[in-house]
Design a protein that fits this description.
CATH architecture of the largest domain: 3-Layer(aba) Sandwich
Catalytic activity: a lipid A disaccharide + ATP = a lipid IVA + ADP + H(+)
EC number: 2.7.1.130
Organism: Flavivirga aquimarina
CATH topology of the largest domain: Rossmann fold
Keywords: ATP-binding, Kinase, Lipid A biosynthesis, Lipid biosynthesis, Lipid metabolism, Membrane, Nucleotide-binding, Transferase, Transmembrane, Transmembrane helix
Distance between the termini: 48 Å
Number of domains: 2
Shape: globular
Strand order of the largest sheet: 3-4-2-5-1-6-7-8-15
Pfam families: LpxK
Strand content: 15-25%
C-alpha cells in the first residue's frame, strides 16, 4: 500500500491543484456557501483517518447540553439508509451510522442526532422540527464548504500533523495545508500526557496560527473500567481477552492495554468495518472481547456476543479547558 502511494506521487500536484482551486472558488464567492443566523459549529480535519472527531463532538455535547438544545449532524458514513434521518428509538448503527448511533445511545435524552450527506438539507430539516435546536454540531464537515459554519474546530494528530503531510494520494491530506486558515481553533490531538512546554512551543511555531486562531493540545484519557450491556469490569482484572478494533488507528489503545501488562489477541479491522457473518462466527469463539465504543455500537446487536462483549470508554482532556470553553460559549452568546 505504501509502495502504491509513492507510485501515485505524480498525481499529487493534480489533486493539490483541484482542491486548491475549489477552495479559491468558495473563498471568492464564485461557488456559494450558505451561512446561518444561529450557531453552527464544525468539527473536522484536513486528513483522512482518525483525528479524534467523535470524542471532540462528545466533549462539545457535554459542554453545551445543560444550557442549550444541541443537535449533531453527520453524513452517517456506511449507513444503509439515504437522505435525512432523525434518530429515534428504532435507530441502529445500520440506519444512521456507528458514530451518530454512539451519540444517540449516550445522549438520547439530552440532544437531537441527525444524519444527512447534504448538510444544508440536514440543517434545513432540523429547523423544521417542532423543537428546533439552539446549536448544531457538524461532524466531519470541514471540507463540506456548501455550509459556512460560524465556528470551525480543526483537529490534527500529534504523530501525523497536517503541517508535515502532503495531499492525497501519496499523503493523507484531503486538501492543501492552507485550508487550516479557515479554522477558529486548532487542536493537536492524541498528545502524550507528559508533553513538555518546549515541545508545545515547537509545534505552535510549525502551526504558525493566524492572529485570530487559537491552538490547543489534547490527550486521550482511557477509563479504568470496561462496560457491557449489563456489566462492568475493571481493566486491571481483564485476562486473556481479544481486542477487536475497526478504527483508523488502534495504536494508542493497544499501547494503553499493553502498558497495563495485559495479555490479549488483537483483531484489527479497517475503519468502520462492516462485520460479516463469518466475523461474528469467529468472534463467538472468543471467551472475552474488548472493543472500542464505536465498534460496540455495531456489534451489540448480536445476541450471541452479549455476555462477552465490553467496550473501553475514552474522554478528551484539553490542556486549557477554561479558555477553550470560554471561546466556544462566547461564540454562542454572539449568535443567539
Amino acid at each position: 500500500m505504501i509502495f502504491l502511494r509513492y507510485i501515485l506521487l505524480p498525481i499529487v500536484p493534480i489533486y493539490y491543484l483541484v482542491t486548491w482551486l475549489r477552495n479559491i472558488l468558495y473563498d471568492f464567492g464564485i461557488k456559494k456557501s450558505v451561512s446561518y443566523n444561529f450557531p453552527v459549529i464544525c468539527v473536522g480535519n484536513l486528513s483522512v483517518g482518525g483525528t479524534g472527531k467523535t470524542p471532540m463532538i462528545e466533549y462539545l455535547i457535554n459542554l453545551l447540553k445543560d444550557d442549550y438544545l444541541v443537535a449533531t449532524l453527520s453524513r452517517g458514513y456506511k449507513r444503509k439508509t439515504e437522505g435525512f434521518q432523525l434518530a429515534n428509538i428504532d435507530a441502529t448503527a445500520e440506519s444512521i451510522g456507528d458514530e451518530p448511533y454512539q451519540f444517540y445511545n449516550k445522549f438520547k435524552n439530552d440532544i437531537l442526532v441527525a444524519v444527512d450527506a447534504n448538510r444544508n438539507n440536514g440543517i434545513k430539516q432540523l429547523q423544521l422540527i417542532d423543537k428546533q435546536p439552539d446549536v448544531i454540531l457538524l461532524d466531519d464537515a470541514f471540507q463540506h464548504r456548501k455550509v459556512k459554519a460560524g465556528f470551525n474546530i480543526l483537529l490534527t494528530t500529534y504523530n501525523n500533523p497536517y503541517f508535515k503531510d502532503i495531499v492525497l494520494p501519496t499523503g493523507n491530506l484531503r486538501e492543501p495545508r492552507s485550508g487550516a486558515k479557515r479554522a477558529n481553533i486548532i487542536i493537536v490531538t492524541k498528545c502524550p500526557k507528559d508533553l513538555s512546554e518546549a515541545e508545545k512551543n515547537s509545534i505552535l511555531k510549525q502551526v504558525d496560527p493566524e492572529t485570530n486562531q487559537h491552538v490547543f493540545f489534547s490527550s486521550i484519557s482511557y477509563s479504568n473500567s470496561v462496560i457491557s450491556s449489563e456489566a462492568t469490569k475493571a481493566v486491571e482484572d481483564l485476562e486473556d481477552f481479544t481486542l477487536v478494533t475497526g478504527i483508523a488507528n488502534a495504536s494508542p489503545l493497544v499501547h494503553f492495554l499493553g502498558d497495563k501488562g495485559l495479555k490479549f489477541e488483537h483483531l484489527n479491522f479497517k475503519d468502520h468495518h462492516d462485520f460479516s457473518k463469518q466475523d461474528i462466527i469467529e468472534l463467538n469463539k472468543r471467551a472475552l472481547i474488548v472493543t472500542t465504543e464505536k465498534d460496540f455500537m455495531r456489534l451489540k446487536q448480536y445476541e450471541s456476543l452479549k455476555d462477552k462483549l465490553f467496550y473501553l470508554p475514552i474522554n478528551v482532556v484539553i490542556n486549557d479547558e477554561v479558555r477553550i470553553n470560554k471561546l466556544i460559549k462566547d461564540f454562542l452568546k454572539i449568535k443567539l
